[in-house]
């Protein structure tokens, strides 16, 4: 059976990964210099897994396309670990509206990445910062400030002055991954290095630690990608 897939290349990507989107499309995320032969080999190797995912009756429901809405080249964007379609809409609203999909005013079509980025930053402040305070209370630690920043190199950081910084791109990841990064940085207020005691603290607060680390390892590059 023929297996169709889209190749998305990026100079920032370091390894090949395959994802099955909510509309059942298969996307291969590849470094810019990987030959198509290597991509075909990976797809062939994952063929059984892909067909299993594609025929999952609940996870990948077809996405209806309402009349009068225009897709932006079939683009989609991540939010809290899931991929949602982008649509251009008419109207006077000047901001993005999220309703199981990203509804972007048609006037912002060319600047959709900029307006989507601002939307991400606002959602990061709204959802991540309260969880920092909640986990800090659970761990019994105090911090000076928690901020959302634009780091290209770290998901989170803890400064010598006990300030915590979190990359806004984390809002694209599942909540259990966000919680892992938060707890990781808060644990540094107890244990400065990555000694066994440090990891015991993180694991005790977040039993899904290994699963979150695996998710970041496999999908971290996707969080860095622009639409």
From TrEMBL:
Q: Which residues are in the YgjP-like metallopeptidase domain?
A: 14-218
Lineage top rank: taxon: Bacteria
Q: Which InterPro entries match?
A: UTP_pyrophosphatase-like, YgjP-like_metallopeptidase
Can you say what this protein is called? M48 family metallopeptidase
Taking the record's annotation, the residue ranges forming a coiled coil are none
């Amino acid at each position: 059976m023929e297996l169709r897939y889209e190749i998305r290349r990026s100079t920032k990507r370091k390894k090949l990964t395959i994802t099955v989107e909510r509309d059942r499309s298969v996307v291969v995320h590849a470094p810019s210099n990987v030959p198509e032969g290597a991509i075909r080999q990976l797809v062939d190797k994952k063929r059984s897994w892909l067909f299993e995912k594609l025929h999952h009756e609940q996870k990948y429901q077809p996405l209806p396309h309402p009349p009068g809405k225009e897709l932006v080249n079939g683009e989609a964007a991540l939010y809290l670990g899931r991929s949602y379609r982008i649509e251009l809409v008419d109207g006077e609203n000047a901001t993005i509206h999220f309703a199981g999909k990203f509804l972007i005013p048609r006037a912002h079509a060319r600047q959709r990445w900029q307006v989507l980025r601002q939307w991400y930053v606002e959602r990061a402040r709204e959802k991540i910062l309260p969880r920092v305070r909640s986990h800090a209370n659970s761990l019994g630690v105090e911090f000076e400030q928690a901020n959302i920043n634009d780091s290209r190199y770290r998901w989170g950081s803890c400064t010598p002055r006990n300030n915590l910084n979190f990359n806004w791109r984390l809002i694209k990841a599942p909540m259990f991954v966000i919680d892992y990064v938060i707890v990781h940085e808060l644990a540094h207020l107890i244990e400065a290095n990555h000694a066994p005691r440090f990891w015991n603290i993180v694991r005790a607060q977040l039993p899904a630690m290994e699963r979150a680390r695996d998710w970041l390892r496999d999908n971290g590059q996707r969080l860095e990608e622009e639409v």
